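Practice set, problem 2.
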Amino acid sequence: MKVLGITAAMFLAASGGAQAEVADKGPAGFEVRHIVTIDAPPAKVRAAALDIGKWWNSSHTYSGEAKNLSIDASGCFCEKLPDGFVRHMFLTYSAPDALRLTGALGPLATTGASGHLGLQFGKAPDPNKTLLTLTYDVGGYARGGLSETWAGPVDSVLGEQVVRLKKYVETGRPQ
């Protein structure tokens, strides 16, 4: 079974001006932050972000197929499985300039952790560009320590997804 979770791959070098970091970590959790400029207006970037099955990496899904991912009108960031489903996160806030989701991604869902994923679609100096800021704050309990075990891998996986979203918006292809 493939899982939304750990990977060593991170393609931020190809993202053109991206900033990525484990912004904060402590005994109770961590925050990762990715900032990238995308060559498209905020409304287009937001629409693409919601079309998650088109750009998310299939190797970070339970089904092995990103096309099974969706964020629907009820606010479910879900994945269809052959005999069931996975509810990865809940969309808790939706506005033209931001999306906010709550939940524990991938293997974090098997721990006592929870998280808040924020996507901010800011205006860049050029009105035809978007300053995308992704943050993921994770807190709770995980055996072996939440920050020590998970901060780096989560940062890598989300960094990869930001790069894929940027490429999808700018070219129509995630890779």
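Problem 2, part (b): a different protein.
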Amino acid sequence: MKKPEKLEGTTTVGVVCADGVVFASDSRAVAGYLVASKEARKIYKITNQIAFTTAGGVADAQNLVDMLKAEAGYYSMHEGEPMGVVSCARLVANIMNYYSWYPYIANLLVGGVDAKGPDLYFVDMDGGATKEEMTATGSGSPVAYGVLENDFRSGMSTKEALPILVKAVRTAMKRDIATGNEVRAAEITKKGYRELSPEEIKKLA
């Protein structure tokens, strides 16, 4: 089976900060030239310390999220401790590699905070996983990267980084037709996973 040449639609961004990991995305889901949804979820809580962003096929992404939520729960019960970020990234990468001839059409950002500190990985549809400090996925990622490369600096706090990620997604909305509607954002720190409210995001913008 021939694999698709590119993933259509969306912009998601993620960065590692001194005190955690920050994610942001748009909320538009497209089917060709149709805006299929204006309220699509692209940031998912896996555990209280790990989250995903998804770009690609909605059903594939949701299936992977459900699978990893279950696996993280099994791991915690069996090992008596939460799954680490790198373990979660490697597991989903192995799953995607196993099905690479009949692929999950998705690119993921896997990030969070564990005993080793903040961590972030990019996982592609072939099952490749790379450790990142700053990354983006989706059709609007080239535009988002322009903002991230210019404004983000290593060692920033989540509070400092959040406005930059919101700006990156908003900028992608202006140039990428498949990125649009609302900005969503979340942070993962030692305190756990937290999604920002629409009011908080408007203040950041």
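Answer key, part (b): The domain at 12-204 is CATH 3.60.20.10 (Glutamine Phosphoribosylpyrophosphate, subunit 1, domain 1). The longest helix spans residues 58-79.
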